[in-house]
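Notebook entry, structure prediction.
Reason for the run: the old model in the group folder had no record of what sequence produced it. Starting over properly, with the input documented here first.
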Amino acid sequence: MREMEPGLPGRVIAQARRVNYDPATRTLSVWFVPSGNRYDFNDVPPQTYAAFRKA
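New structure, fully documented this time:
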């Protein structure tokens, strides 16, 4: 798992194909285009996920 870096949502959202957030574990999973690779980011606060979705 990776830590969510400041400013990362803006850089990632344009390349994201699919996004999933598990509030119980605070894990944000992002699948990228065109590779389809998934990256998991741990300890993502709900407000960071909300900002990510708005980006």
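Summary: The two ends are 22 Å apart (CA to CA).
The old model has been moved to the deprecated folder.
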